[in-house]
Write a structure and sequence with these properties.
heterodimer, A: alpha+beta, Ubiquitin-like (UB roll), DNA polymerase, domain 1, 5 helices, 6 strands, elongated, B: alpha+beta, Aldehyde Oxidoreductase, domain 3, Aldehyde Oxidoreductase, domain 4, 3 domains, seven-stranded mixed sheet, six-stranded mixed sheet, 34 strands, 25% helix
């Protein structure tokens, strides 16, 4: 299977060692299978569904489309890194729960990362802007109605 | 910004929070693809690239030479039954002599890295002699059989009233629906762990643990108690997890290697690895009096079952039974059939059979309204079935049938304001920048009504088992009902809190050990069936708790009641918190719940085959760019017959999510086949609605007419949203374009190139 390599990744503020890994592994696989961070999901692994969304140096990416070894030196934030601690939820996570935006939950982590990114860059989006921003995150259960409500609730809470 | 963790508990009727919600939003919920075991191997399947071929040989030697490969297995390694199936074991675990569809498994590999497993799968040399695939469902019944069990999978005939009856007005049409994919987000995945007793523990995402167990055990030639299934987190199902996928293969690999084996389908594999919604070809003729009263429906329906039976029998049964729609039709001549072809196997998907028939009969109702010069909504109201009327199967509706109410409330809702000329770019058909000329965008409104049975039908003894254990005020519920996202876990807690007045309700992990079957999470049945089982088990424990208090306190049982979490007597001389009412006692009851018996349909398709029915109406508003053939669904309004709302936000979630799948079938979703080859097995090419595609859903009314015989009065709510939403959207496109559009999904070329297309073909024989 070719060369096995060692490298380090910076994920959710912690340095992780990756050792003897196949060079061809994508970031999603390494997060899930080597670093014990399965929150990022694997619905398509071809950059279409957004379920593996993570932030790399503040940019929203599909981690399935990133070669893990190319992420060395980047500051990576996954869904596991969004809340302040074990007993807390981020405002977006709490809004998803409160508004019934979660059904099977497979798309949920990617959507939550996307919505954090959206509200970071556009704190007061219109509904169409929200729809466009999350149009790269496929959900098959909800029809998006409660998800849009959750985004609106989080947005309003941040506006105060 | 953050919020401290808290869970909104709730009773029936409240929007109680999902018990799995917190781990799901944190990314900590363990889906079947998230599982890990020390020393585990990765499995991979070898699939046929041909829709039809003879296998001339399988050479695994090259694959076995690859470093890291631990096992390669084929049909020869299946120790028990080499085939499986829900109603007839006609589907091979691994094909051995012929392959009957593109993607059929032929061999499997286990290796220490998923990439090694993929490469080893590619190194297995399977010799094929491709044969001409049988791909036309209209000729399949008469074609040379492609399977020892023949090409006719199932027929359902219905004869009701006078077959020669005629009406003053007759309309007819030929309709087609495409092959839809369930497209759940969580790919098929599982982990099999060999056990010291020679058995295997399988952690799997499925819809029905016990039926999987029975099928897997038969293939492994192991007794049931050595094949233990445990539910792993399910990332959506929608029917696609009713049939086995990798279950047998990964158990075989685990038993062969003595190591845990994990397998995850890629999205492409997922398109090959589960059944789809049956494509249909349907011919309908309706007769009506000049005042609009329906006289007769004649229909011929052919459903393409693909290579194996799966649940085609029930799908055909539904398509036939509901060919009359939610209307009074005194005379009916219906022939429905599912056939075997070399197309991908088709089976269960949300609303099966009823979706296809609804697309046709609702188009017919609009044609009839036009022919009679009647308003389409008024025509539906005039024929709307109600309690006491009978279906074309002769079954009299004894339960709630608020069809007129769903029609009236849906039709009365205000239409959306705005016009495509003033819409934002993103809200135009096709999204930003694609509309040719916004002045040529036309708006249309369409209406449709649907009906489907709830739960298993046709004489099947449908049941669910639940156990309630109460100890020191904490209730534990054990039930093998599968949570696929719909929220049964929430409901089970709500029911328990309601009956026992406790706050703390623990849900034991669902599995096949120590509890009986809960039946399938399908057919909109778990609220009724497993909800009923949980309720009955809790009631039994409640009775024992009161009896225990009566005994200890020396008071008559009759004066005790459980109110707001306290056991109290009439005069309050007894007043105890549930937690303190039976100190040191463990109260445990297990109940097997059955719904009322049903019957098989007779030779004329007559009989009381169903337990209960649910109805919904949908009104769609669409904008259509007639030059480019692009459609934007602007809004869907719906009313639904729900019996009773047990959890408002979960009902809304089912309604909105079901409509999204109906919209998908109407305007974008289809597995494209070319001589049996799937041409679009990816989310790049198989398009499902995004947040930009999905319209606002307006719920005009949830009709709460408690269903007699239903636990808590509630009807299942999952399927009706999918049934008539497709028909409503296509009706709206017809209204916008004036085109006949007899096929779903409506593709851009069906609109933009309508003048260049040939007329629809003749009626299927």
């Amino acid at each position: 299977m070719g060369e096995l390599i060692d490298y380090r990744l910076q994920v959710n503020g912690l340095e992780h060692e990756v050792s003897q890994a196949w060079l061809g592994e994508n970031l999603l696989f390494v997060l899930r299978e080597r670093l014990g961070l399965p929150g990022s999901k694997n619905a398509c692994e071809q950059g279409e569904c957004g379920s593996c969304s993570v932030l790399m140096d503040g940019t929203l990416v599909c981690s399935c489309m990133v070669l893990a070894a190319s992420a060395v030196g980047a500051d990576i934030v996954t869904v596991e890194g969004l809340s302040a601690g074990e007993h807390e939820l981020s405002d977006v996570q709490a809004a998803f729960l409160a508004e019934g935006a979660v059904q099977c939950g497979f798309c949920t982590p990617g959507l939550i990362v996307s919505v954090h990114d959206l509200l970071e860059h556009n704190p007061d989006p219109t509904e169409l802007e929200v729809r466009e921003a999350i149009s790269g995150n496929l959900c098959r259960c909800t029809g998006y109605g409660r998800i849009l409500e959750a985004v609106r609730a989080a947005q309003e809470a941040r506006q105060g | 910004m953050s919020t401290v963790l808290g869970v909104r508990r709730g009773r029936l009727g409240e929007s109680a929070a999902r018990p799995d919600g917190v781990p799901k939003v944190r990314g900590q919920f363990a889906f079947s693809s998230d599982l890990f075991a020390e020393g585990m191997l990765w499995g991979h399947l070898v699939r046929s690239p041909h829709p039809a071929a003879t296998i001339t040989g399988i050479d695994v030697s090259e694959a076995l030479r690859i470093s890291g490969v631990r096992a390669v297995i084929t049909s020869e390694d299946v120790p028990g039954l080499k085939t499986y199936g829900l109603d007839d074991p006609d589907q091979p675990v691994f094909a051995w002599d012929v392959v009957r569809y593109m993607g059929e498994p032929v061999a499997a590999v286990a290796a220490d890295h998923p990439e090694t497993a993929r490469r080893a799968a590619g190194a297995i040399a399977v010799g094929y002699e491709p044969t001409e695939p049988l791909v036309d469902p209209e000729t399949a019944a008469e074609a040379d059989p492609i399977h020892p069990h023949g090409n006719v999978l199932y027929r359902q005939r219905i004869r009701r009233g006078d077959p020669g009856a005629t009406g003053a007005v007759v309309v007819e049409g030929r309709y087609e629906t495409g092959m839809q994919d369930q497209a759940f987000m969580g790919p098929e995945s599982g982990l099999a762990i060999p056990a010291e007793d020679g058995g295997v523990d399988l952690y799997i995402a499925t819809q029905w643990l016990h039926i999987d167990q029975a099928q897997v055990a038969a293939c492994l030639a192991l007794p049931l108690d050595k094949v233990r299934l445990h539910l792993a987190g399910v990332g959506g199902a929608f029917g696609a997890r009713e049939d086995l996928s990798m279950q047998v293969q990964i158990c075989l690999l685990a038993l062969r290697t003595g190591r845990p084996v994990k397998m995850i389908y890629s999205r492409e594999e997922s398109f090959f690895g589960h059944v789809h919604r049956h494509p249909s070809v349907m011919w309908f003729r309706h007769h009506a009096e000049s005042d609009g009263r329906l006289v007769k429906v004649e229909a011929r329906l052919i459903l393409d079952g693909g290579a194996y039976l799966s649940s085609s029998m029930a799908v055909v049964g539904n398509a036939a039974a509901f060919a009359g729609g939610p209307y009074r039709v005194p005379n009916a001549v219906v022939d429905a059939m599912a056939v075997r072809t070399n197309n991908p196997p088709c089976g269960a998907m949300r609303g099966f059979g009823a979706v296809q028939a609804c697309f046709a009969y609702e188009a017919q109702m609009d044609k009839l309204a036009a022919a009679l010069g009647l308003d389409p909504v008024e025509l539906r109201l005039a024929n709307a079935i109600r309690s006491g009327d009978s279906l074309i199967t002769g079954q009299i509706l004894h339960g709630a049938a608020p069809v007129a109410e769903v029609i009236r409330t849906c039709a009365a809702a205000p239409l959306p304001a705005g016009h495509p000329v003033t819409s934002a770019e993103l809200a135009l058909p096709g999204g930003a920048g694609r509309t040719a000329d916004r002045h040529r965008v036309r708006r249309g409104v369409g209406f449709a009504v649907g009906v489907k049975n709830l739960m298993y039908s046709g004489g099947f003894d449908d049941s669910s088992t639940a156990r309630c254990r109460l100890e020191d005020g904490v209730a534990t519920i054990t039930c093998a009902a599968v949570e696929v996202g719909q929220g049964f876990v929430t409901l089970a807690q709500q029911i328990t809190r309601d009956v026992l007045g406790v706050d703390e309700v623990i849900l034991a992990p669902p599995g096949t050990t120590g509890i009986g079957s809960a039946g399938s999470t399908s057919a909109s049945r778990q609220t009724w069936m497993s909800g009923g089982a949980v309720e009955a088990a809790c009631r039994a424990v409640r009775g024992r708790l009161l009896a225990s208090v009566a005994d200890r306190r020396g008071v008559p049982l009759e004066i005790l009641d459980l109110v707001e979490g306290r056991v109290v007597s009439l005069g309050r001389e007894v007043d105890l918190a549930v937690a303190d009412a039976a100190p040191g006692e463990v109260l445990e009851e297990t109940v097997e719940f059955h719904h009322a018996p049903t019957a098989r349909l007779d030779a004329d398709g007559q009989g009381d085959a169903h337990v209960s029915f649910a109805f919904a109406a949908h009104r769609a508003v669409v904008d259509v760019d007639i030059e480019l053939g692009l459609v934007r669904v602007v809004e869907i309004t719906t009313s639904q017959d729900v019996g009773r709302v047990l959890n408002p936000v979960q009902v809304v979630g089912q309604v909105e999510g079901g409509i999204a799948q109906g919209v998908g079938l109407a305007v974008m979703e289809e597995i494209v086949l070319d001589h049996g080859r799937v041409r679009n097995p990816s989310f790049t090419d198989y398009i499902i609605p995004t947040a930009l595609d999905m319209p606002t859903v307006h719920i005009a009314a949830l009709i709460e007419e408690p269903e007699p015989g239903a636990p808590m009065g509630a009807k299942g709510v999952g399927e009706p949203p999918t049934i008539s939403s497709t028909a409503a959207v296509v009706a709206a496109i017809r209204a916008a374009t004036g085109l006949e559009l007899p096929r779903a999904p409506v593709r851009p070329q069906d609109i933009a190139l309508a003048g260049a297309r040939p007329a629809p073909g003749p009626a299927p024989e």
